[in-house]
């Protein structure tokens, strides 16, 4: 999903598909409709593309594992397929404590206390997503008066809409690892 594909990129994707005998679908998003939505210096309007993807793919599949581009999978995800999402819209991992505390101040009106999740890993029930019209509701929230309080617009809105409608996964499903961690932990040099 992108708002612009260069001919060079398309040729590369075509070669990749032939080389690995796979089908790769490219979806072009017209971003003009997103111009009114919040963005930040760090997060472009591309953060909203997954909302379109959830809506579109709900016509083809019942569940989907969404992973941010910076996520690395280090083990089996088989256990996710055993989750009972019949009455929950998603399985997610709670964000770290430092973020939880800040969210309580920033999004106080939404009462997300202790239940704020990081949206980099979301196993979503697309059937319930579509039935609850969550893409439409997300865009309404993003265009509403509360939008100024959204530091992470797409993630904040997902947390608001999915409040009490998620299963919390264990931390290993979405562990944030930064260079700061590497610099502090010298054990790997022994």
Descriptive notes:
The chain has 190 residues and is an alpha+beta fold. It folds into two domains: 1-35, no CATH class; 40-189, Spore Coat Polysaccharide Biosynthesis Protein SpsA, Chain A. The protein has helices at residues 7-20, 49-57, 97-106, 126-131, 134-142, 153-161, 179-184, and strands spanning 63-67, 90-94, 117-125, 166-168. The protein has a four-stranded mixed β-sheet with strand order 1-3-2-4. The chain is globular. The model has no long low-confidence stretch (mean pLDDT 87).
Distance, first to last CA: 43 Å
The gyration radius over C-alpha positions equals 18 Å
Indicate the CATH class of the largest domain: Alpha Beta
Q: Can you say what the CATH homologous superfamily of the largest domain is?
A: Spore Coat Polysaccharide Biosynthesis Protein SpsA, Chain A
CATH architecture of the largest domain: Alpha-Beta Complex
What structural class do helix, strand and pairing data support?
alpha+beta
Keywords: Glycosyltransferase, Transferase
GO molecular function, one term: lipopolysaccharide glucosyltransferase I activity
Protein name: Lipopolysaccharide glucosyltransferase RfaJ
Pfam family, one: Glyco_transf_8
